[in-house]
Amino acid sequence: MSNNIKMLLFDFDGTIADTFEHTMRITNILSDEFKFKKVHDHEIDFLKGKTVHEIIKHLNVPILKIPSIVTKARHELHKQIDTIQPIEGLKEVLPQFKQAGLRMGILTTNSEQNVETFLEMHDLKVFDFIVSTSRIWGKNHGINKLIKQENISPCDILYVGDETRDIEAAQKAGVRVIAVTWGYNSQTVLEKFRPDFIVNTPAELFSLCSAYLPPNLAF
């Protein structure tokens, strides 16, 4: 890997914001309305080892209703946004990336409003842009669009995410990806999708990125 990182692109839920428990509660709230199975406590570790496709199948989520479910989930999450905390240790790391001169963005299936509210609450207004997409499995389209808009090479970007679908999206877009183990998917299943890097803590993320800054950027 050459020292040419110019942009860090982050997923939001599970990567920056600790939304896992909130999402599980919301999933169970919506299960009655949309007629799919609830998530039980004893299933949590099992589901963390599954892809989104596998989870949808396990819970019998109606595929055609997924757009409506996502919209409702965003609305429910907004009600709880003031109770959501950043991933421990990340709040101290993110401003240092910005100070080093890296361009930083968020690519998420959450709503821009939810992300903006969260960042404002936690004094994390360090991101240059937020891109919200309704494509659960199509984040690669968002990455490709950013590459064109920013006039940047895919090799200049590092994408940071916590799910197998983040890894797949980055790989399809030709962007290197760091998988973090503190989010929605377990390390075991993340490793199966062969990300470029895996980190277990925000401190490890900081060390990794600092080692690959271009000469004109420095901490």
Give an overview in words.
The protein is of the alpha/beta class and about 220 residues long. It has 2 domains: about 5-20 and about 85-210, 3-Layer(aba) Sandwich (Rossmann fold), CATH 3.40.50.1000; about 20-85. The protein contains 10 helices and 6 strands. The protein has helices spanning about 20-35, 45-50, 50-60, 65-80, 90-100, 110-120, 140-150, 165-175, 185-190, 200-210; strands spanning about 5-10, 105-110, 130, 155-160, 175-180, 195-200. Strands 3-2-1-4-5-6 form a 6-stranded parallel β-sheet, with helices on both faces. β2, α6 (about 110-120) and β3 (about 130) form a beta-alpha-beta unit. α1 (about 20-35) crosses α4 and α7 crosses α8 (about 165-175). The longest helix has 15 residues, at about 20-35. The model has no long low-confidence stretch (mean pLDDT about 90).
Question: What is shown here, in short?
Answer:
The chain has 219 residues and is α/β, with parallel strands linked by helices. The chain folds into 2 domains: 7-18 and 86-210, Rossmann fold, CATH 3.40.50.1000; 20-83.
What's the structural domain tally?
Answer: 2
Name the assembly state: single chain
The tally of helices reads 10
Any idea what the shape is?
Answer: globular
On the 0-100 scale, what is the average pLDDT? 92
Judged by helices, strands and strand pairing, the structural class is: alpha/beta
Instruction: Name the helix and strand elements from N-terminus to C-terminus, one letter apiece.
Output: EHHHHHEHEHEHEHEH
CATH topology of the largest domain: Rossmann fold
Please identify, by name, the CATH architecture of the largest domain: 3-Layer(aba) Sandwich
- The CATH superfamily of the largest domain is HAD superfamily/HAD-like
Number of strands: 6
Low-confidence stretches: none
Instruction: Supply the CATH class of the largest domain.
Output: Alpha Beta
Query: Ends: how far apart?
Result: 19 Å
What percent strand? 5-15%
